[in-house]
Amino acid sequence: MTRVGKHTAGKAAAAAGDSTPSDRRPLYFAAFLLLADAALVALIIAFVPYTKIDWDAYMAQVDAFVEGERDYTKIEGDTGPLVYPAGFLYVYSAIKFLTAGQVFPAQILFGVLYIVNLSLVMLLYVKTEVLPWWALSLLCLSKRVHSIFVLRLFNDCFAMTFLHAAMVLIIYHKWYLGLIIFSAAVSIKMNVLLFAPSLLLLMLKAMSIKGVFFALLGAAVLQVLLGMPFLLLHPVEYISRAFNLGRVFIHFWSVNFKFVPEKLFVSKELAVALLALHLTTLIVFAHYKWLKNEGGLFHFLYSRFKDATSIGQFIFCKPKLSTLSKEHIVTVMFVGNFIGIVCARSLHYQFYSWYFNSLPFLLWKTRFPIFMRIIIFVGVELCWNIYPSTAYSSLILLFLHISILFGLWSSPAEYPYANVKT
């Protein structure tokens, strides 16, 4: 029997009920959904009032950059100082050039961006064949995500579109270019780093040590090049502001931990505890799920040394099995990011875009019955549409997140390699 990225291509057929391995129904339905959602986006832009939140601040920060300011501590907007890496400034400088800083043309641009992002996500879903064709419609049903893109114009939208583009390249094993695009996503907003541990593990499974080094080097070089105007003149100010991992968010805006007293919410103890939980959960999933076929995390790392008969072989040789399946790549990336979401101290409303597109995939990776998957999906969406969030809505959201994580933990791990005869 041949495994081609999955146990069999018929797994998707089983999920759909009446499909066949050669069924093109998901592709056609995805194309229909894209057209329908494009029409919906046009209607939203035309008839739903724009919500002013960060756009003016973005434009003020861009103005300071264009006028020659290179000290990050002096680049500010009406919502506060600039806290994003340099890629953000280049992207929004281009947007201002194209739109003259006007909201309506920017909304049109973001509407196009929404469809591009959805197209990339649809491609990931169609190629992995995890969902039945009809469940692809869930990707188009979020009121909050439509709002994040075309009514609020957040930089999260560009960061996640670049991230999904990187994932598409990676499932086709274009690792070096994928890492460059991934780095570009990080340069727009650092939340993309939640995918980094999963990506590193996949690279170690698929590439030689030399390959991993040069892929990471390429990603690092891009960060340096983008930050060069600031690094040359004010390096400390740039690094401390653009890559500040210790920011404390305002309790009022938290969607996930509103039930926690504010004093505990802003405490260092909670931050450290959540970080420890995040790292522990990643290690546990890596050991028992993502590297189960390789004998666990520590056996995998040991085997990279054990199988090498020389330093040269250790550096230049790939693992014996190195062609990863598309499903495994997407699973590890989406689950790794979701673990970060579950353990995040604060999720603001725009942060929903960080993981919404992965929700149907994650739910169909569990063993939950279909009605329960739908209930959880709707429950998460409802929690994100309660404004302002309450202690009850945030507690329910956390419960739903933990339920998904438990479902992922209790489900069988997919076979990780493609084109391997067993």
In round numbers, the mean pLDDT is 92
Query: What shape does the CA trace take?
Result: globular
Major β-sheet, in short?
Answer: 2 strands, antiparallel
* Rg computed from alpha carbons, rounded to a whole number of angstroms: 22 Å
End-to-end Cα distance: 6 Å
- Quote the beta fraction: under 5%
Number of domains: 1
Please state the structural category.
mainly alpha
Report the uncertain regions. 1-10, 12-22
Please tally the β strands and state the result: 4
What share of the residues lie within helices?
Answer: 55-70%
Write the element-wise H/E pattern from the N-terminal end onward: EHHHEEHHHHHHHHHHHHHHHHE
Give the strand line-up of the largest sheet.
1-4
Total count of helical runs of at least 4 residues? 19
Kindly describe this structure.
Helix 4 (86-99) packs across helix 5 (103-128), helix 9 (196-206) packs antiparallel against helix 16 (326-342) and helix 13 (268-290) runs antiparallel to helix 16 (326-342). 62% of the residues lie in helices and 2% in strands. It has 422 residues and is mainly α. The longest helix is centred in the N-terminal third of the chain and has 26 residues, at 103-128. It has one domain (2-421). The strands form 2 sheets. A two-stranded antiparallel sheet has the order 1-4. It has 19 helices and 4 strands.
